[in-house]
Amino acid sequence: MTAARTVFLGSGSFAVPILEMLVEHPQIELRAVVTAPPRAVGRGQRIAPSVVGSRAEAMPLAVLAPERLRAPEAIDQLQAFRPDLIILADYGQIVPRSLLELPPQGALNLHPSLLPRHRGATPIPAAILAGDRSTGVSLMRMDEGLDTGPLIAVREVPLNGDETTPVLEAALARVAAKLLARSLSPWLAGRLGATRQTDEGASLSRPLRRQDGRLDPSRSAASSERQIRAYQPWPGSFLETDEGRLVAWQGRVWDGAEQTTGSESRVVDAARGLLVAVGEGLGLVTTDGILELVEVQPAGGRRMRGSEYARGRPGLIGSRVREGTVG
Q1: Could you tell me which residues come within 8 angstroms of residue 167 by beta carbon, excluding any fewer than 6 positions away?
Q2: Domain end: 178, 204, 230, which one?
Q3: Based on the number of CB atoms within 10 Å of its own CB, is 312 exposed (0-12), middle (13-18) or buried (19 or more)?
Q4: What is the pLDDT of residue 40?
Q5: Is residue 322 part of a domain?
Q6: Cβ-based neighbours of 65, under 8 Å, separated by 6 or more
Q7: Amino acid 256: pLDDT
Q8: Which range marks the domain in which residue 278 is found?
Q9: How large is the angle between the packed helices 16-24 and 51-58, nearest 10 degrees?
Q10: What is the mean pLDDT of residues 292-310?
Q11: Apex CA 147: angle with CA 135 and CA 35, to 5°?
Q12: How does residue 267 score in pLDDT terms, banded at 50, 70 and 90?
């Protein structure tokens, strides 16, 4: 079988193992990589390519980084490659209909969730935040909807309840690369079909905003613990205290505060938002108990155990976290 002329669209870390697999696949002739344009990164605001762009340039491969994929000049560039197949993963822009219809073998997308659950921009944090017991990777043929295309293959991955977004993203990226590698030959040979998605059980994960990282004492301790894991590395999870902003890197539901009933629940409700001593450490009173802040980072400081932070700031115990807009 002649190798399929392929254009790959990807930008983030999830896409890198998929790109590396495509370069080695005997039935793929990778004509070009399309990625996000270089952006300012880090404290020094250095202009740098996307992680996919950097990896593709090192291979080396032809790399396109249009600001707008819908722009006529970008579409003309892609059409010039005469792709038989388009593959997308973690790209960041909507693919216009003219490109979806261009390759005879279709435009395929690898999405890190069990579709139709967690369609949209942030499926990995969404699965952690929801406390899902499993997630996975879905391979679909793209249509004009947002992750609504017919499904070609799905691989489920169990969750153990302690994953962070970076760790889970890396694991799902490896699963995605293997799933695509196994699916390409039968798809290109016409032996693998696609099944229409339904909307039953569908949910949408929206883009995250900086203010989403604020830990909200009106939520449960378990929900806040999941947020800390889900919102790494960005927007992070933080509190505004009398000592300034405090980022939480690890938390756990305090064993003595997993259940509150009767008079205890009224006390917790009145104290909601207080910073309290939990053993030698630091805790945040939530709507149903206490979130222990296991690892924290003060503004401009290093990461440390919550107990170390609390020992150096005895006046913090008994103060209340601040609410308001994120600066």
Answers
A1: none
A2: 204
A3: exposed
A4: 83
A5: no
A6: 34, 35, 36, 37, 38, 49, 50, 53
A7: 65
A8: 210-316
A9: 30
A10: 95
A11: 95
A12: very low
